[in-house]
Amino acid sequence: MLEAAEKKRLIAKARQLRERMVEVTYTCGGAHIGGALSQHDILVALYYKYLRLDPKKPDWSERDRFVLSKGHGGIGHAVILSDKGYYEDKLLNDFNKTGSPFGMHLDRLKVPGVDASTGSLGHGFGIALGMAMGARVTGKSYRTYCLIGDGECQEGSVWESAMAAAHFKVSNLICFVDRNGFSLDGPTEKVMALEPLDKKFEDFGWKVLTIDGHDFDAICEAIEAGHQERKKPVMIIAKTIKGKGVDFMESKTGWHYGGLDDEMKKKALDSIQRRYPD
Ligand SMILES: Cc1ncc(C[n+]2csc(CCOP(=O)(O)OP(=O)(O)O)c2C)c(N)n1
After folding, report:
1. Which domain holds residue 79?
2. How many domains in the chain?
């Protein structure tokens, strides 16, 4: 269990950055905000409690690695990296506009703090596996974390990486599935059924934990259990809600991607403030 003050700090940070995501979505005209909101509490726990990083030295070789394999969630990653001090927040006012370093999917050569350019689903997971194996080969102590989407699990390359990670006993890799139940155009179980997802990863040789992906106690406990694992890669299936925090977006297929007008922006901010009171 987290100490009350720490939990409060994480919840407050998550709220502040949900608001920022809404503002950036409003100014840029449209973003993959549904999945950015579902993944968000996991990224907040990682970036504000666990990742060993130095924003002044984004290429520090001992830094922990984080790969957002569902790269369309880039807007959620971008607001966190800005808040951590990798770049000036005002740059996000031009998010996804012509000439901006920020595309919808973050480019590691343009955005400091990004470890892998992702967006083509199914590839970031394999890149993360390579980073984790690289630590072993080079004798480094950094950890590698990765987040994949549940719709992304319909890509064959996810299962090639899963098989390789278990075969090579890559226990310094902790991965999350953002199990929000939706892909781009509908519920995953209708598009192409994934269940029983936990058993699938177990059968592939992973240690699997299933948690509520919006409960900071559960997220942190699972990460710490992952740190203790010595033989297997660790998959944390995080049950989440697509659009979490903005009531009119929650679990709505239409909110995979969308833009906000003045009224919707106000409603979205009101919802976040109601859900996460001071
Ligand atoms: C290889 C590939 N195929 C298709 C797409 C288009 N696409 C973008 S997001 C998405 C749905 C992904 O679903 P999920 O991983 O569950 O994302 P989330 O619901 O968490 O946003 C798809 C099919 C893509 N980016 N890459």
Report:
1. 4-275
2. 1
